[in-house]
From TrEMBL, chain A:
This is tRNA(adenine(34)) deaminase. Residues 171-190 are annotated as: Disordered. Residues 17-129 form the CMP/dCMP-type deaminase domain. Keywords: Hydrolase, Metal-binding, tRNA processing, Zinc. It comes from the Eukaryota. It catalyses: adenosine(34) in tRNA + H2O + H(+) = inosine(34) in tRNA + NH4(+). It is an enzyme of class 3 (hydrolase). GO terms for cellular component: cytoplasm; nucleus; tRNA-specific adenosine-34 deaminase complex. Its EC number is 3.5.4.33. One of its GO terms (molecular function) is tRNA-specific adenosine-34 deaminase activity. One of its GO terms (biological process) is tRNA wobble adenosine to inosine editing. Its cofactor is Zn(2+). It holds the Pfam family dCMP_cyt_deam_1. It comes from Ambispora gerdemannii.
UniProtKB/TrEMBL annotation, chain B:
PANTHER family: CYTOSINE DEAMINASE FAMILY MEMBER, INACTIVE TRNA-SPECIFIC ADENOSINE DEAMINASE-LIKE PROTEIN 3-RELATED. Pfam families: dCMP_cyt_deam_1. Keywords: tRNA processing. One of its GO terms (biological process) is tRNA wobble adenosine to inosine editing. GO terms for molecular function: metal ion binding; tRNA-specific adenosine-34 deaminase activity. It comes from Ambispora gerdemannii. One of its GO terms (cellular component) is nucleus. Belongs to the cytidine and deoxycytidylate deaminase family. ADAT3 subfamily. This is 10423_t:CDS:1. Residues 287-296 have a biased composition (Acidic residues). Residues 253-387 form the CMP/dCMP-type deaminase domain.
Length: 190, 410
C-alpha cells in the first residue's frame, strides 16, 4: 500500500520524508478537530511543495454534515482569490483518513493529482474501502487519480477511536458510552 | 402505484428475481407437529436465522374443495448444506421419528426475504413466506400529496430556468470543468429542500458553478448549506429570544424587524408559497472569506425569520417550545431537476435526508440510480427513498442541448 512509483531514484528518500511532513501537519489539524469535539480528520493541499490550503472537519460547528476537512480546505483555497480551480490539477492532498464517497468524487471533479491518506475509512471510504470513486472507469467525466494510504496510519486510527469512545451530544439520541473501552491494538491494513 | 407520476428507484434487493435454496422437508400429521419441531430444534443445526422469512410449516388440504376433510403438514428441517441426506435419515430413525414422517425429500424455498409486495406475491406460491412491508414503502400517496409534490417539482424547474436566465453558463475555455467538453453548456439545475410535515420550503437554490467559479457549487450542496445556516440562525434566535424573555426586553427584535430584505430572489419565491424562509446562495456570498461568509448569511437569515409573519412576537412561545433542534436534513424532502451526482448523493447521506425526488437521470455521474444506488447501499449508515419523476418531459427542463446533460454532474 505504501509502495509508490518514484520517477527519480535520488529523490526517493526526501520525497518519502516530505509525505510524512505534510501528513504531520494534517494530523495536527485532526488533533485540533478532536479538541473542538469534531470528528478528528485534517488535511492539507500541497502545490509545488507548498501548502496552499488546509482544513479540518467542522460538521458539528457548522450543523452541516458535508463540512468535511477537504471541503473546508477547498473553499479556503478558492475563496483566497489566489487560485482558480485549475490549481487542484497540480495538487496533492494529504488527509489523515481516507476520503469519503462525497469527497472522493469532489476531488475527482477538481482533477486532483493524487491523494495520500493515513488510515482507511471502513464506513464511508470512497477510494478503495467501500467504493472506488477515485478510479472507477464508469465515471467518465473526470480523470482518475491514485490514492495511497498508510501515512501515520496508527495515529489516525487512535485519534478516531478516542473520538468514538467519547459521547456525542450532537447526535439526535446521544448514546451513553461510559462503558466503552479504548482499544489500543491495531490490525495490519487489509 | 401505477397511477403515480413518479416511481421509486428500487434497490437491487428490491428488484431481484426469485433465488432459491434447498432444504429438507417431510410430511407429518398435524398432531405430531410440536414433537417434530422440538426434535428439529434439539438435533439439527439451526439454519433458520438466514431463513426467517420462510414459514417452517406448510398446510396442505387433503381436498382443496372441501377443507373440512382435514389436512397434512409439510415441515422443513434445515438447509441441505448443513447435513447429508443419509445422516438426516439416520438421525430421524434413531430418534424413532421415521414412523411419523413420510416422504422425506428436498424442497426449494426462496433464498431472500421479500422486500416489496411484488416480490412477496411472486414468491409465496413456491413456499409460504412471512412478509413485513416497511411502513415507508407501504405508505400510499393521496391525490393531495401528489399535487403538493408536483408543485414542489414545478418550483425547482422554475429555479432551473432562473439559473439559466442568470447565465449559469459553463464556458469550457474559461472554466474547464471537464476535459471531455467541447462546447459551452448550460447547466440550469434547480433544487429545494422541504419539510413535508409543515410543507414549508426551507431552502431553494440552483447550480452556481459558473458564477462562483467553484466546481463544487452544485445545487444540492448549496441547498444543504442553506438549511445548515437556517438552523444556526434559528438556534441563535431561540437563544436570543430566551434571553429577552428573561430580561423582559423585546426591543431588539423590533429594531431588527425594521431592516428590509434586499434579496430579490426571496421576494420572488414568495409569489408561490406563503410560508417560506428562503435564501439563495449567491456568488457574492460564496466568494467571501469563510468566516465573513458565515456571519453575513447568518444575519440575513435572522432578518428573514424575524420579518416572516409566522415568527411574530405572538408565536415566540411556540418557537421556544420547539425545544428539539432540527438535526441536519433529517425527515426533509429534496426536490431537484436532475439526479444528484455521486458527491451530492453522499452529501445527502451525510445530511440524513428523508426522501429525494428528481426529474431526470444523469447517466454518467448519477449516484441515486444511474451508476450507484448510494441511497440504499448496504454498508452506508443511512438509507432513504428516491423517486424519479419520469412524467416530466424533456423540454420542461430547459437545456439548450438536451444531449449535453450526459456530460454534466448534477
Amino acid at each position: 500500500m505504501n509502495e509508490e512509483k518514484l520517477d527519480d531514484g535520488k529523490d526517493n528518500v526526501s520525497r518519502e520524508t516530505d509525505h510524512y511532513q505534510y501528513m504531520r501537519r494534517a494530523l495536527d489539524l485532526a488533533h485540533e478537530a478532536y479538541e473542538s469535539h469534531e470528528v478528528p480528520v485534517g488535511c492539507v493541499f500541497v502545490h509545488n511543495n507548498e501548502i496552499i490550503g488546509f482544513g479540518r472537519n467542522k460538521t458539528n460547528e457548522a450543523l452541516n454534515g458535508t463540512r468535511h476537512a477537504e471541503f473546508e480546505a477547498i473553499d479556503t483555497i478558492l475563496s483566497s482569490g489566489k487560485y482558480t480551480s485549475d490549481v487542484f490539477k497540480e495538487c496533492s492532498l494529504y488527509v489523515t483518513v481516507e476520503p469519503c464517497v462525497m469527497c472522493a468524487y469532489a476531488l475527482r471533479q477538481l482533477g486532483i493529482q493524487q491523494v495520500y491518506y493515513g488510515c482507511a475509512n471502513e464506513r464511508f471510504g470512497g477510494t478503495g474501502s467501500v467504493f472506488n470513486i477515485h478510479e472507477d472507469p464508469i465515471l467518465l467525466l473526470h480523470p482518475q487519480y491514485p490514492s495511497i494510504g498508510g501515512y501515520y496510519r496508527e495515529e489516525a486510527i487512535m485519534l478516531l477511536r478516542k473520538f468514538y469512545v467519547r459521547e456525542n451530544d450532537n447526535a439526535p439520541e446521544p448514546k451513553r458510552k461510559h462503558q466503552r473501552v479504548l482499544k489500543t491494538t491495531i490490525k495490519p491494513p487489509k | 402505484m401505477s397511477n403515480l407520476p413518479f416511481r421509486p428507484i428500487l434497490t437491487d434487493e428490491e428488484t431481484r428475481d426469485l433465488e432459491t435454496v434447498e432444504v429438507y422437508a417431510a410430511d407429518i400429521e398435524p398432531k405430531e407437529a410440536e414433537r417434530v419441531l422440538k426434535f428439529i430444534k434439539k438435533n439439527l443445526p439451526s439454519s433458520f436465522t438466514s431463513l426467517n422469512h420462510v414459514k417452517r410449516v406448510r398446510k396442505i388440504y387433503n381436498d382443496e374443495k372441501e377443507k373440512g376433510k382435514g389436512f397434512t403438514l409439510t415441515i422443513l428441517f434445515c438447509l441441505t448444506t448443513l447435513i447429508s441426506f443419509v445422516d438426516l435419515q439416520i438421525l430421524i430413525t434413531s430418534n424413532g421419528f421415521d414412523k411419523i414422517i413420510s416422504r422425506l425429500r428436498v424442497e426449494k424455498v426462496p433464498k431472500h426475504a421479500p422486500i416489496t409486495r411484488a416480490q412477496f406475491d411472486a414468491w409465496k406460491s413456491l413456499w409460504p413466506l412471512n412478509f413485513h412491508e416497511h411502513p415507508n414503502n407501504a405508505r400510499k400517496f393521496t391525490v393531495q400529496d401528489i399535487d403538493i409534490l408536483a408543485s414542489h417539482m414545478n418550483r425547482v424547474i422554475e429555479l432551473a430556468q432562473l439559473a439559466k436566465s442568470k447565465g449559469e453558463n459553463l464556458d469550457p475555455f474559461l472554466f474547464p470543468l471537464s476535459y471531455f467538453w467541447i462546447d459551452p453548456v448550460q447547466i440550469p439545475i434547480g433544487c429545494a429542500i422541504i419539510d413535508p410535515c409543515t410543507n414549508t420550503i426551507l431552502a431553494e437554490s440552483h447550480d452556481t458553478r459558473a458564477s462562483t467559479r467553484h466546481p463544487l457549487c452544485h445545487s444540492v450542496l448549496n441547498c444543504i448549506n442553506v438549511v445548515a445556516n437556517l438552523e444556526i440562525s434559528s438556534r441563535q434566535f431561540k437563544n436570543m429570544s430566551n434571553e429577552q424573555m428573561a430580561a423582559d426586553d423585546i426591543s431588539r427584535p423590533q429594531k431588527r424587524k425594521a431592516k428590509e430584505i434586499d434579496d430579490d430572489e426571496g421576494n420572488e419565491s414568495n409569489l408561490h408559497q406563503p410560508k417560506k424562509h428562503t435564501i439563495i446562495i449567491d456568488k457574492e456570498e460564496k466568494g467571501e472569506d469563510e468566516d465573513d461568509d458565515e456571519t453575513s448569511s447568518l444575519e440575513s437569515n435572522i432578518e428573514i425569520i424575524l420579518t416572516s409573519p409566522s415568527f411574530s412576537s405572538k408565536t415566540q412561545n411556540t418557537t421556544r417550545q420547539q425545544s428539539k433542534d432540527a438535526y441536519l436534513c433529517k425527515n426533509y424532502d429534496l426536490f431537484v431537476t436532475h439526479e444528484p451526482c455521486v458527491m451530492c448523493s453522499m452529501a445527502l447521506v451525510h445530511s440524513r435526508i428523508g426522501r429525494v425526488f428528481y426529474a431526470r437521470a444523469t447517466p454518467n455521474s448519477g449516484g441515486l440510480g444511474s451508476i450507484y444506488k448510494i441511497h440504499a447501499h448496504s454498508s452506508l449508515n443511512h438509507h432513504f427513498r428516491v423517486f424519479i419523476w419520469d412524467s416530466i418531459s424533456d423540454d420542461r427542463i430547459a437545456y439548450d442541448r438536451i444531449e449535453s446533460l450526459d456530460q454534466v454532474d448534477t
